[in-house]
Amino acid sequence: MTKKIIPLLLIVVGSLSCSSNTQNQIKEESAATPPLEELYASAEREYIISAARAIIEADPVGALISVDSLGRSRVRSVNTSKPDSTMTIWVATRPGTRKVDQIIGNPNVTLYYNVDGEGSYVSIMGQALLHEDQDFIKTNNPFSDEWTNQFFPDYPENMLLIEIQPVWMEVMGQGISASEDTWRPQAVAF
Hints:
35% of the residues lie in helices and 29% in strands. It has helices at residues 2-31, 45-58, 98-105, 134-140, 145-151, and strands at residues 61-67, 73-79, 89-93, 108-115, 120-131, 160-172, 186-189. Strands 1, 2, 3, 4, 5, 6 and 7 form a seven-stranded antiparallel beta sheet that branches.
């Protein structure tokens, strides 16, 4: 009797696993597309981006949120670069960290910055790309030599760069206010 039940259970679990993998693939592909129907903006795009830059400059230590292999959100504080002209942001880390493993499994991440005393914040939902090539790291490292040497004494051997390309961004503060009806922050799609 047990022999007949075990194969049946394996088939059910196997089909759930396949279904889950397909759903995860759909979620990852759709995560690269901003949810335009949810986004709210009453200010001009450049004004929202300018406010975001001011908030990030006031607190360049952001919270990087990734998703682990069990689908749980994982968060940690990270030093970040200033956003470039496309609002791409860089994070430096060591190879073998949990965040690297999580990004390999799911490149969808969120960077969150806030200025507590002002009630201002920026959330950047994006796609993370990992860069391990030492020549690339030497050429593209956005951090100062002093900072790099402090945290990565064997630079560039023990450094990995995470490039976070924005998909969409939500902003509140620096003159940017939320919707009075829904409390949604103002947003920009990239």
